[in-house]
Structure formats: structure tokens, C-alpha cells
Amino acid sequence: MSEHPVSANPLDLDLEEVLARVVVVELPLTVKFRGVTTREAVLVEGERGWGEFAPFPEYDDAEALAWWRSCLEAARCGFPEPVRSHVPVNATVPAVAANAVPDVLDRYGEGITAVKVKVAEAGQDLEQDLARVAAVRAHWPQVAIRVDANQGWDHGQAVRALSALAQYDLEYAEQPVAGVDGLYALKEELARRGVEVPIAADESVRKAEDPLAVARAGAADLIVVKVAPLGGVRRALGIVQQAGLPAVVSSALDTSVGLSAGVALAASLPELPYACGLGTGSLLGQDVLAHGLKPSNGQLPVGAVSPEPNNLRAVELHGPRQQWWVERIRRVHRLGQSGPNR
Ligand SMILES: O=C(O)CCC(=O)C1=CC=C[C@@H](O)[C@@H]1C(=O)O
Ligand SMILES: [Mg+2]
Fold first, then answer.
1. Residues 75, 82: Cα–Cα separation, whole Å
2. Looking at ligand 1, which residue's alpha carbon is closest to its atom 12?
3. Any idea what the CATH number is for the domain that residue 69 is in?
4. Average pLDDT per run of 10 along the chain, which is 342 residues long?
5. Is residue 155 located within the same domain as residue 187?
6. Do residues 30 and 121 share a domain?
7. What is the pLDDT of residue 237?
8. How many structural domains comprise the chain?
9. What is the pTM (predicted TM-score) of this model?
10. Residue 37 class from Cβ within 10 Å (0-12 exposed, 13-18 middle, 19+ buried)?
11. What ligand 1 atom has the least distance to the C-alpha of 34?
12. Does residue 118 have an active-site annotation?
């Protein structure tokens, strides 16, 4: 790729030249997350660094376009100047059985100050969520605990669950129910009942037509921002600035290349009031860097990353899955050149 000015459109490139050099990888997860045990991603090296394209397989091309823009921003434009050298991260606990919690937490090492616990998993019940959160509190008594329901509760379930979980002094509840109206109604009801659990919006930001609608409606106390679904670090920075709410930077279960874009966003935000959901490198069984981005003393370092050729070769995909990703990029790229500026 030739020298690329930051102000130009990163989609303006010779696509076949880029596709000839992309690396498609599949990384094993050490714990099942979002129902999957491996994570596929495409890595692209550009004149300013490495970018990652890894929209989940079920996402359509319109949704995947923001991830492609984000990948090309990293590869071709680089990132804004950081204002800090390290970012604090939370441990993330998937919807595992309570007795598996200590083992999951220990993967993140010492010095973690916040833990995010997945709740409302399909096929599980509130007792299992309470037991998982209790196991976190028992293993690490001092940490702040937040829960993420991925909009898995309806209004009544969320009121019941958060009223019960409030005994653990929750830092916040992430996307307990679906939609801006749903979040607003829940926030009102919790306030009426005196249940003091702040509400964070995730899907209502990253999957919304208008990522600012939730802030305008006063339906959340804070927002979760993820670089790839929001179309890159600069777009995510703009959304945080316009939302005017505290922001938590999170991963999309990325390889260390994708995580480094999240770190770049966290590093350039003027305020960083919460530990970031960027510790998920600890859930990967293999990574593309010689030393993957895993927390040390609860923090990740800010800076460029570069995959190690041997690590890349060990996880590189060939054949039909590689072709599937290449074809997906062709379609998404065409959409970006022809369609509305999503
Ligand atoms: O925020 C974290 O602690 C880790 C990232 C995380 O939870 C997620 C990553 C990828 C997909 C999402 O289902 C999930 C989330 O909902 O925040
Ligand atoms: Mg979430």
C-alpha cells in the first residue's frame, strides 16, 4: 500500500493488492465465550501498522463494513496521539459454572481491580448468575463487579435480577435489556425502587443505527465503546465526545492486533474513569504476537504491535475458510464504495 494521508478515505486502495497479502487466522479460546471455542480474524498490514477485520460470522455485510473501516484505519492511518502509557483492564468471566470462576480469574494475573461477569445466558437461570457473581466476590473480595446481560432479560427479569445482584454493590449493569426505550424504562423503575445499579449501553451503541440515541434519551449512565463495530478509533472518539457520558472501552474478543486498537482508543480518551474490557487476550489459547496483549498488574501497555511470523503461521487458515473471508471482504469493500457512509 502506498503512503496514505490520515484525512483521505482509507477505502481508497487497490483491493486485490491488499487481499493478496491478508492473513486469515483462527485462534483457540481457553473458555467458551458467546457460544464459540475459536475466533477467526483477518489481519492486514498497511503502511502505518496492522489492522484486524473480525466481524462475527453471523453479521451481515452492512454491519461488517464498520469493522473493515476500522481495520483499514489501523493499517493505513495509524492512531491519534496517546495521553497515557498504560490502560487498566477488567477481567471478563464468561457464563461458566460458579466452580470454574477461580480458574478463569487466575488467568488474568494479579492487580485486577474490576471484573465483568456474563449473566442472562440462554438456557441458564438467575440462581446460576448469582452463584457466578458470588464466586467472583469470594475469590477476589476487593474488586468492583459489573455484569453484562447482552440484552438477555426482559423488563421484569431485569428488575428481579438486578434487585438481587445489587447486594454485590455492582459497578454497573451492561445492556440488561434490549433497546433505548427498554433501558430507559428499566433505569426509571430501578430508581423508583431505590436499586442503585448504574446502566451501561453496549448493543444500543454498537449495533444501533444512531449510536448517540441512547445518550440523547438519557437511557444510560455510561456507554461501552468498541473500536471495530464503531468504525475505528477516530469515529469512536467522536461518539464518546458527542455522547457526553463516561465511556468504557471494550474488546470484541479480538486478537492482540484488534486489542491494540482498543488500547489506542483508551489511551487517547481525555477521561478514562473505568477499567477497560480489553483483558480478553487472557482467554486466547494462542495469539499472533510473540507475547500477546495480556494484563500485567491489571494493565496493558499502549503502543504499536506486530505479529510474529512463526505465531501467524501456526494459526493461519487456508482453504474454504480463508476464501470465505476474502469473499466477505470483497463484498463489504464494494458496499463501502457504493453505499451510504455508514
Ligand atoms: O467487555 C469485556 O470485558 C470483554 C468483551 C466482551 O464482553 C464482549 C466481546 C465480544 C462480544 C460481546 O458479546 C461481548 C460484550 O457484549 O461486551
Ligand atoms: Mg456487552
1. 17
2. 252
3. 3.30.390.10
4. 63 92 96 92 96 97 97 97 98 97 97 98 97 98 98 98 98 98 98 98 97 98 98 98 98 97 98 98 96 97 96 97 98 88 48
5. yes
6. no
7. 98
8. 2
9. 0.96
10. exposed
11. 13
12. yes
Range of the domain at 67: 15-79+310-338
Nearest by Cα to 178 from 205, 159, 150: 150
Q: Report the residue among 250, 255, 278, 300 best suited for mutation to probe ligand 1: largest number of ligand atoms under 8 A from its CB.
A: 250
CB atoms within 10 A of CB 248: 26
Annotated binding site: 148, 174, 202
The three-point CA angle 220-234-49 to 5° equals: 130
User: Which residue owns the Cα nearest ligand 1 atom 2?
Assistant: 277
How much is the pLDDT for 8?
72
| pLDDT given for residue 35 in this prediction | 87
Nearest one of 76, 64, 78, 73 to 336, comparing CA atoms? 64
User: Do both 169 and 291 map to the same domain?
Assistant: yes
Based on the fold, state whether residues 193 and 301 are members of the same structural domain. yes
Do residues 226 and 239 both lie within one domain? yes
Q: In this structure, are 234 and 221 located in the same domain?
A: yes
